[in-house]
Amino acid sequence: MSKLNLEVPKLPLNDGASIPMLGFGTGTALYKKVNDGKIDRPTVDQVKTAISVGYRHLDSSEAYGTEAEVGLAIKESKVPRSEFFITTKVNQTMDDIPSAIDQSLKRLQVDHVDLFLIHKPDFAGGDPVKLQQAWAAMEEVKASGKAKSIGVSNYSREQLEATLQTAKVIPVINQIEFHAYHQRDGLVQWAREQGIATTAYAPLIPITKASPGPVDAILPGLAKKYAVNEGEILLRWVLENKCVALTTSSKEQRLSDMLRICTFDLTPKEVEDLSQAGLQKKFVGFT
């Protein structure tokens, strides 16, 4: 299958960079339950498939155990590094963030990442000082040039507020679970007001894990109207909320189809209808 010639829209970040609003995620389905350091060839091939159909935003983490596979897929794809937006996260090695980025870069076989995130705030145990100290270390990583942009993941408003109290660099993004059934009670809008964008993981939960539900009455009509499938409507809803969407699939056709979200816009009423329907049900898949 040839690459679908579509331009994925980009979201401006508070540091002047921009991020493709649709990314290929290597968590969940590709997560290594046992990370023995060996290359998982099927994962490499799945990432290469995503690259071949047009994905350039690749999301990984040391916690997923997929950085080496992402790096090898990029190398084997022969696509120039400059075309990619690479995100990874620090998780297990929070006690030495400068070392963590070095190890991630080694596994990814690159000299910098486009976005480096703190994966979870759990390490702080509710201590705001620990959140602030960790963020200071992230700022050092940015200053070193090893990460063009820095941010966080799975942070609540309170954890972001604690971080912002001493931050010299505002996080560019908070990567969180966000979908119609988990609209985060104003977190996304509040963060945007602080200059912090949102990346949504698990955006398809309303049809993969939480069905049946109230959005089921709306999705078929929209899918028919725009000649796409229901998952693509949910992904487009994320983009209409000015958020980045992460998705994944092992199927080449499915990955290609999802790029069609770049070809249409939902009307404001359609976005609002989906949002209001989603508020009728609460379903949290991860956080």
Summarize this structure briefly.
The chain is of the alpha/beta class. The model has no long low-confidence stretch (mean pLDDT 95). The two termini are 36 Å apart.
Description of the structure:
The protein has eleven helices and ten strands. The chain has a domain at 10-203 and 243-248: TIM Barrel (Alpha-Beta Barrel). The chain is of the alpha/beta class. The protein has helices spanning 41-53, 67-77, 97-108, 128-144, 157-166, 187-193, 205-208, 219-226, 230-240, 252-258, 268-278; strands at residues 10-12, 18-20, 22-25, 57-59, 85-90, 113-118, 147-153, 173-177, 197-201, 244-247. An eight-stranded parallel β-barrel has the order 3-4-5-6-7-8-9-10, surrounded by four helices. Strands 1-2 form a two-stranded antiparallel ribbon.
What labels would you give this structure?
globular, 8-stranded parallel beta barrel, 10 strands, two-stranded antiparallel ribbon, alpha/beta, single chain, TIM Barrel, about 290 residues
How is this fold's topology laid out?
Layout lengths: L9 E3 L5 E3 L1 E4 L15 H13 L3 E3 L7 H11 L7 E6 L6 H12 L4 E6 L9 H17 L2 E7 L3 H10 L6 E5 L9 H7 L3 E5 L3 H4 L10 H8 L3 H11 L3 E4 L4 H7 L9 H11 L9
Parallel strand pairs: 3-4, 3-10, 4-5, 5-6, 6-7, 7-8, 8-9, 9-10
Antiparallel strand pairs: 1-2
Helix pairs in contact: 1-2, 2-3, 4-5, 8-9
